[in-house]
Amino acid sequence: MKTIHKLVLKSYLGPMILTFFIVMFVLMMNFLWRYIDELVGKGLSAGIIIELLGYAMTNMIPMGLPLSMLLAAIMTMGNLGENYELLAMKSAGMSLPKIIRPLVILVGVIAVGSFFIANNLVPAANKKLASTLYDIRKQKQTLEFRDGLFFNGLENMSIRVGHQDPQTKLLTDVLIYDNSAANGNMRTTLADSGYIRLSDDKRFLMVTLFHGENYEQTRNNQWYSKSALRHDKFDRQDLAVSMSGFDMQRSDANSFSNNSQTKNIVELERDIDSLGKIVNTATARSYEPLLKDQIFSKDPTILFDTLGVDKRRFRDFSAADSISKLGLREKAQVWTQARSLSKNSRAMFNYDERSAKDALNLLYRSQIEWHSKWSLPVSILIFFLIGAPLGAIIRKGGLGMPIVISVIFFVIYYIISITGQKLAKEGTWAAVYGMWLSTFILTPVAAYLTYKATNDSSLLDTDWYIVKYKALKGWFAERIRRILSKIKSKHNDKQITE
Q1: So where are the chain's domains?
Q2: How far is residue 368's CA from residue 310's CA, in Å, rounded to a whole number?
């Protein structure tokens, strides 16, 4: 490998790694912002949080890689151009395609690797992410008492404390309503102070109370007329109440594999084939009898038999002419009968229609996910081929101008992708058009920028635009001056003639 190619590779690897982690950090902040309400107050361990963030980060790699490739390419070529290293390479007879050849090979390897990440790693991470979020949502909040307020996070139990010491966790003025008894008895406990905490395994609620009273109302099958109230005092009372829902119960990740985002290419192809057969079968079962037997039947005057009308009277007329020849009462009967048949047909085929639509929606989603796995490597290459020429043209390194341009291009790419994906989900477009729309649009842009950068274009040079503006302004001024001089000359000639 040439020394120049090593220099270019070394200049690219640093910004690529840096920008990738910056992009992933921004996407991770967006994830935390969406799920922060479900994570706080659950007493989750650091291991669970790190595990959840790892799954989320893996899921975001297909979105972060194209943007990081674009930003790194602009920064690398911008730095080389700003330091006149790119100019020196071109002066030595190297063209831009030859300069970025090792980068193209590197990005190609990354693009191929991204396919395997999207096909194998991301589906597994999506399963784990869905199961972990489900387990976190099931887990109850930790015991957090607030002065003077009831804590209702426990099933069939409500606790109010007057004050909790932040250091010793000692509770004062404790009031407990307990309806957890199987016989329906309600127990009320008052205590001057005490401690309430979960056991280490979070299976029991450990209650220790000092100087209090218990009031228990006993009920039987005639509680509305016969009930008793039991009262006792205590100096110290220890209870262990069985709890559930506070410990982290882990679910099987394979039970969350019904989503198309949790499947690889082979599984998606299998789903597409089976869903296509289901859609065809359900559609034929729903609409073919309706079209043949109800709407487009061979005999347009089929309703006449039901009404007892002699069809021979209308042998030489069309259906519309035949109906128009009927009397007012017969027309009303035809309308009523046709309306009744339509309602019956709609009710008969309504279920099959819904099943066909559900299968069709699943088919669209599977096709979208299948194409998205193949379009990811192509989008990475296109973003690099946009970023490298742009960096060579603007000749600005750092994180200022490259970030602005990268965000603009990525927003355009994201809007186009979301639009195409929405049209594909609705069935307005085929999945191949919806998922490859951004590629079709950005590929000519990449080719145009590469051509301009190879020919040392001043596409983004402000001085070039200022010079062109001044030249255009001077041309217009000269044209206006000539037109005014001609008008003035014609006016003088007219005055001389008069």
Answers
A1: 3-139+371-413, 150-242, 257-368, 461-498
A2: 56
DSSP 224: T
Query: Residue for token digits 């290419």?
Result: 265
DSSP annotation string for 429-455 = S-HHHHHSHHHHHHHHHHHHHHHHHHT
- Round to whole Å and give the CA distance between 208 and 193: 9
**Cβ pair 420, 432 in contact under 8 A:** no
CA-closest candidate to residue 101, choices 113, 117, 91, 89: 89
pLDDT digit string, tens, across residues 156-175: 788 888 888 888 888 899 89
Q: How far apart are CA 383 and CA 436, in angstroms?
A: 14
217: β partners: 186, 229
Q: Which amino acid is at 144?
A: E
- Work out the average pLDDT over 69-98: 85
The answer to whether 96 touches 392, Cβ cutoff 8 Å, is: yes
Q: What is the DSSP letter of 141?
A: P
CB 471 within 8 A of CB 458: no
> What is the C-alpha separation between 74 and 446, in angstroms, rounded?
13
pLDDT band at 340 (very low <50, low <70, confident <90, very high): confident
Tell me, what's the pLDDT at 119? 92
Cα separation, 182 vs 72, whole angstroms? 65
Say what the pLDDT of residue 112 is. Answer: 93
CA distance 334 to 340: 10
How far apart are alpha carbons 285 and 142 in whole angstroms? 54
Q: Find the helix packing angle between 46-82 and 401-426, rounded to 10°.
A: 120
Residue 331 contacts by C-beta under 8 Å, 6 or more apart in sequence?
323
39 Cβ contact list (under 8 Å, min separation 6): 32, 49, 52, 136
For 224, phi then psi, to 5°, come to -70, -20
pLDDT tens digits, 289-335: 555 555 444 444 554 555 455 555 545 444 555 555 566 666 677 67
- When mean pLDDT is compared over 32-36, 70-74, 87-91, the highest value belongs to 70-74
DSSP bridge pairs for 228: 218
